Amino acid sequence: MAAPLTSAEETVVASYSSDSDPERVGSTTGKKTSRVRFQVSRVAEDEAERRIVQTDSAMPGQPETDREPFLFLGVCAMAKKAKSKYMTEILARIGAEFEQIRTVIFDEQQILHAPVEEWPRCDALISFYSGNFPLDKAIQYAKLRNPFLINDLQMQYAIQDRRKVYEMLAAAGVDLPRYAVLDRECPDYSPASLEEFEDYIIVNGMQFQKPFVEKPICADDHNVYIYYPSSAGSGSQRLFRKVFTCPNCPHI
């Protein structure tokens, strides 16, 4: 934004004749003149001609000419996620498609240890949770700077609990497989809630034939197991992420 006028040096007053420049004056009668007031930037007069809109949240420390045309997209996540192959590809495509978007990847050490007041400013924010990420600080930052949020930060608390995810999907009318929740930390838990047999189990009165999948309640816990019936050799197998198979674990 141009600086407010404080002295005559920052104001240029010009008179135009309608005969010489009718379009600028906006009048076609006689020699009537119109006084046109220009606010001239202290940097250069050509800045007033271009009138490039500068966002209030421009990155501090950037040269004035670099700051004005750009919209800054912040990426606030742990380095393993923010600099992953997939995120790098996404950001590269955004940069190729939209020349006036600049990407700002928040430093992991700054995310973990610096107050949100010291985090870089941005106009739009992508932020997502992973192990050790301080989601509460990201929410504080969003409230402080009010960037446009690409994804919902508060909802990321909910998706850490698989029970809540299933409840939201059911409420949205999404088809779900049959499932039961066995929470051994629940005050109402009873060992009788689980009955185990060779080829099936019963959880809270619901019978599940093997093979079935067991998942931890916490979405950050990736110890997911599939249990096999006797016709398939019994036992169980842990489903490793990004790995197709792993040895059977019949002792579990």
In short:
Helix content is 25%, strand content 20%. It is built from nine helices and twelve strands. The protein has helices at residues 22-25, 45-50, 64-67, 79-82, 85-97, 108-113, 135-145, 155-158, 162-171, and strands at residues 11-17, 33-39, 71-76, 101-105, 124-127, 148-149, 194-196, 200-203, 206-209, 212-214, 225-227, 236-238.
Structure in words:
Residues 1-58, 63-67 and 243-252 have low confidence and may be disordered. The chain starts with 10 loop residues before the first strand and ends in a 14-residue tail after the last strand. It has nine helices and twelve strands. A hairpin with an 8-residue loop joins β11 and β12 (236-238). The chain is α/β, with parallel strands linked by helices and 252 residues long.
